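Researcher: Here's the sequence for the chain we discussed earlier.
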Amino acid sequence: MPNQNAVRPVLPALGFPSGARVVIWHADDVGMCHGANAAFQELSRLGSISCGAVMVPCPWFAEVGEIASADRSLDLGVHLTLTSEWATYRWAPI
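Model: Thanks. This is the structure I predict for it:
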């Protein structure tokens, strides 16, 4: 069992006490559909999530690119997308 009072040196760099417990809410599969993009944008604006990962080969990538260009405060990374796991919702490689 991990030490509950462990010092976490990265936390002060993020503005938290070194012994704090922190949860980072991350939105996955942004760009997959319009709903995922809209949810990411709204939840980010509300402060309910702090980051997300965009799937570049997906059909709605261009929309989230425009959203991110308009709001530079969004924390978006790139989701490594090797396959499309749905049989009825596919996208081509880039």
